[in-house]
Amino acid sequence: MHIADSHDLIRVHGARVNNLQDVSVEIPKRRLTVFTGVSGSGKSSLVFGTIASESQRMINETYSAFLQGFMPTLARPDVDVLDGLTTAIIVDQERMGADPRSTVGTATDANAMLRILFSKLGQPHIGSPQAFSFNVASISGAGAVTMERGGTKVKERREFSITGGMCPRCEGRGSISDFDLTQLYDDSKSLREGALTIPGYTMDGWYGRIYMGSGFLDPDKPIRSYTKKELHALLHKEATRIKVEGVNVTYEGLIPRIQKSMLSKDREGMQPHIRAFVDRAITFATCPECDGTRLSEGARSSKIAGITIADACRIQISDLAEWVSGLDEPSVKPLLGKLRHTLDSFVEIGLGYLSLDRPAGTLSGGEAQRTKMIRHLGSSLTDVTYVFDEPTIGLHPHDIQRMNDLLLRLRDKGNTVLVVEHKPETIAIADHVVDLGPGAGTDGGTVCFEGDVTGLRTSDTVTGKHFDDRASLKSEFRQATGALEIRGATANNLREVDVDVPLGVLCAVTGVAGSGKSSLIHGSIPAGAGVVSIDQSGIRGSRRSNPATYTGLLDPIRKAFAKANGVKPALFSANSEGACPTCNGAGVVYTDLGIMETVATTCEECEGKRFNASVLEYRFGGRDISEVLDMSVAQAEEFFGGGDARTPAAHKILERMDQVGLGYLRLGQPLTTLSGGERQRLKLATHMGDKGGVYVLDEPTTGLHLADVEQLLGLLDRLVDSGKSVIVIEHHQAVMAHADWIIDLGPGAGHDGGKVIFEGTPADLVASGKTLTAQHLADYVRA
């Protein structure tokens, strides 16, 4: 054998990232390796945090120092030896950028190709590709330019114009905002009396001082007495440089300032109090000028075979693929071929029901991941490492086979495919399995099994024991105590759907991806009517956030410490007054070394405890605040449950966290170190405390191991038995089999779906055997 052919393994020795405990594995190249284990066992730490991270870091180091200055600086993972790495292409579950201007078309380059196509073939011809872009505004100008010719300065008049495709009314957003002025100010008060009711606009803050000292407004006159000129200055005045209290500042009317500071962000990315203000004060309506297409009149007038670019982006991708296939124009043949391939990839991967104008921020985690996969299908690259994070998320059992075929195709081209996965259907196709565990958090981080699927089945690991688990159909079903009536639902692809969702039971809403499940439940059940909705949106949090801050647990703990010691609660926050002055409450000191990785060293002052030394002298129940944050949920539950430290408010939150299986989490563990499944359950625990009689859960099994699904089903049962109504949008057959009632949507996705095709008990669904869900549920319970 040639020596170059001997490097056929990726060797990892002594990996200690997050909870990994000196893990050593050898992964075969050009094979499909699946990493299994309970949620939080260290799968992502090994695959993403160690192997993929080091591969990316080493590739970045091949670029010049100048280029590296523009790239994210990646730290070397905590590992002794990493050998045999190849270029890693990461396809993770991170939601796509939620910028309001980002759509499925712009994120996959399909829009860029369509714009070129219309600029070449569209009639009438209106300009270059940017004339069809809703992100480019049309501008024109003229003026004198001075240049040197032959040693003398010459002035010439020049004109320029750019034809863009942006709708001038909505500025390419597709919707316009209308302000409820009563929510911006109290017109019976003057500015000095605090008329402005916008969050952050206090009179002693900078905004208030700018408005009062601008000279455009009388600070002592009630707003209802303003002249038209003053009211225009308050609400609409364009940016103007002024001097207030000796400082040069920019004055701007309330409405343009709010549009720039608040409305430019995605709603989900706003702080809760800002989001509440925006929901209260601003209504969004479809732009009447472009009818939501975001495009100018010129861009909407140019057609190819009777279709405009707005029509092309609005129709379902599977239909658009057929239309592109019907175009035969030799002058743009390479472009048509690439566009056809991209659109066919959407269909092949099970996303043919989307449209190109769908905002990227509205895609679920599974849809976003599959959209990212599209650019890798048909790629000519070989001998690279593809890394997938639960690619079956959001997929109906019918679609999982399709995804498996794609993973095998990538492997068969000579690539190494690494997959973190919980679904037995995908684990079954692996060439090699690495099982981590045995538990989660500090109880995990070791390799429990390495080998093939047959060996895993017979192994004594948690995954091996549960691999062939099958939930059986219930013989007794709870009876509904009422119904949520949905009538004439037409959101997205729904077709005048009438359905009664039973209350007082566990109701599962099923159907292939894109059949209309989320549209029916999230889009048709009125929010706020006692409904607690837990969707798939990710938990946002920095390295300063932890389970205690996210769940609100830290508030009662701080108050208990403050009361016991007679001091302020703010002292017991590492993000506030109690922070260590050296590291500002981070616990580590970061040293930026330019193009090199940033060095993080444990703070010498507080020894990583994050708090000021004087704060750590205050004790409650015999512990200081840093010791409490270092406890696991289970330990803290016992600590706050009785004795001197009894705190009922804290105990209640800890009890909910333990119920969802997070008893091993440390209270002060940064949110950035939690796995997808742990974040999903943390979110569930937080919302379980909300007041409401109806719980809507969107795929709660996301990121959960087979062993954890059993615990989730027990939790759902307890919720229903306590008098709640639980509606679950789910693809997992165990949840379907356990439900009291099933509403199945379909029969297909997109315009082939949107209808209720079955209502009844799981047993009746299996007996009917007509729908795709029925067939897969029948196979599951009989297996």
TrEMBL record:
Superkingdom of the source species: Bacteria
Single GO cellular component term: cytoplasm
Cell compartment(s), UniProt: Cytoplasm
Name of a matching Pfam family: ABC_tran
GO MF annotation, one: ATP hydrolysis activity
ABC transporter domain location: 4-463, 456-772
Keywords: ATP-binding, Cytoplasm, DNA damage, DNA excision, DNA repair, DNA-binding, Excision nuclease, Nucleotide-binding, Repeat
UniProt GO BP: DNA repair
Family: Belongs to the ABC transporter superfamily. UvrA family.
Protein name: UvrABC system protein A
